[in-house]
Amino acid sequence: MKKRFASVLDADQEVAKLRKESEQLELENKRRDAEIKSEQAKWAADYEQALSELETLNRRVDHVRDMEAMQEYGLYEPIFDFDTSAEYQAKVTAARERQKTLIKNGTAAVCDTNWTVEGSAAKGKDMTTRYLKLQLRAFNGECDAAVAKARFDNVRQLQERIEKSWEAINLLGKTNTVRITQPYLDLKIEELRLSYELAKKKEQEKEEQRAIRAQMKEEEDARKEIEKAKKDAEADEARYAKALEAARKEMESARDDKQEALRKKIALLEQQFEEANERRVRAISRAQLTKSGHVYVISNLGSFGEDVFKIGMTRRLEPMDRVMELGGASVPFRFDVHAMVYCEDAPALEHSLHRKFASREINRVNSRREFFRVTLDEIDIAVRELCGEGTEFVRTAVAEEYRESESIRRKEELERQASKQVLVDAEVARAKSRLEELKETWKAEPVA
């Protein structure tokens, strides 16, 4: 038995064998760990790629859904792309002229049968002409009504209405084989689209003109303000210079007990003279820098909610005057100012910020409203990238009037609830009192 199991009984040999097997297992585990990590890295890369593809597909699906929703609601996608209303008007006129040409040529409405009346081809032709005129008059009336009612949300429905009217009128004329032609229908639909886009372009041009007039007014107000500041500074400078000269002459002949008071007076006048001089120089400098101004970042929590900011520009010498104008009767609360950045090329800074946050603009149709749904941190970072680190931002929106109004509303609501509770308590007390009265007057009847 000992001879038979000698290899097993040899402990050293058994340990060596187990150690070797352990090392082999460890090597195998390391190899498998490496394979697992490699597979995990591959899976992670595949997952990131699949996630990116999914986001791309989701964006495409959202776009398709948006387009479907727009079609369901009848929102109109522009067909033409002319720069001015005059070009649109010319195209509308051209479409009408082509309609007149089709009518003159007899191809706007046609009859596929040469009718005779009482054996007369002339009478048959006269009847057909009157019927065609009646068809065109009815169809043109429908089309003119549709053009007059065209809005951004009903152009598609009006186009369908014109097409259905065309089908209905042609169906009525089927017995006599008279019909309005497809080219004439196409011209009417083109006129509808052009007329709507013309009206929209005119409104856009009016808005642009209003913006230009507002800008011109802003520049004129800024010019007048700078000119007034310059004149006021020159007048103050002349007044202080005259007073300073008089004080110096007075000091030359003054007694010793008045010398100290005159020195203080002269020092004060010299300081005021320097300040007036600085104001005059600053006004002249601002007048020479035609693009200089302030870019402001303001919010109105009570009017527009959180994370909605207006990024605008003013050339006023006192930029807060512009902010006060914006917080006038058009909004219920005053604006809070978060930043007021002076820049020698304020329009360029404003344009850069508007372009950076273009996708976050509240009004995607009219970009001149200048309101953006964006955080103050994002605006801060953008301004510092463009202007450096010297810009100060006020993080908290005071919104004093709004918060006080909310406080008043909450107080009034609590008072209303308290009044309701008093009424309820009084009703409960009356019910209890009535119950007690009933208990006192109630007598039990004997059981039969």
Task: Provide a descriptive summary of the structure in words.
- By secondary structure, the chain is an alpha+beta fold.
- Helices cover 70% and strands 7% of the residues.
- The chain is built from 12 helices and 6 strands.
Lateral strand order in the biggest sheet = 5-3-4-6
Shape assignment: extended
Mean pLDDT: 81
What about the largest sheet? 4 strands, antiparallel
- How many β-strand stretches? 6
Terminal Cα span: 110 Å
Helix- and strand-based class?
Answer: alpha+beta
What low-confidence regions span 5 or more consecutive residues with pLDDT below 50?
Answer: 67-76
Question: Count of helices?
Answer: 12
Question: What fraction of the residues are assigned to beta strands by DSSP?
Answer: 5-15%
Order of helices and strands: HHHEHHEHHEHEHEHEHH
Helix content: over 70%
Rg, alpha carbons? 43 Å
Could you name the key traits of this structure?
448 residues, alpha+beta, two-stranded antiparallel ribbon, 4-stranded antiparallel beta sheet, 12 helices
Task: Tell me briefly what this model is.
Helices cover 70% and strands 7% of the residues. By secondary structure, the protein is α+β, with helices and mostly antiparallel strands.
Please describe the topology of this protein:
Blueprint: H1 6-9, H2 11-72, H3 85-105, E1 109-111, H4 121-149, H5 155-172, E2 178-180, H6 182-253, H7 256-288, E3 293-299, H8 301-304, E4 308-314, H9 320-326, E5 336-343, H10 346-356, E6 371-373, H11 376-387, H12 400-441
Antiparallel strand pairs: 1-2, 3-4, 3-5, 4-6
Helix pairs in contact: 3-6, 4-5, 4-6, 5-6, 6-7, 10-11
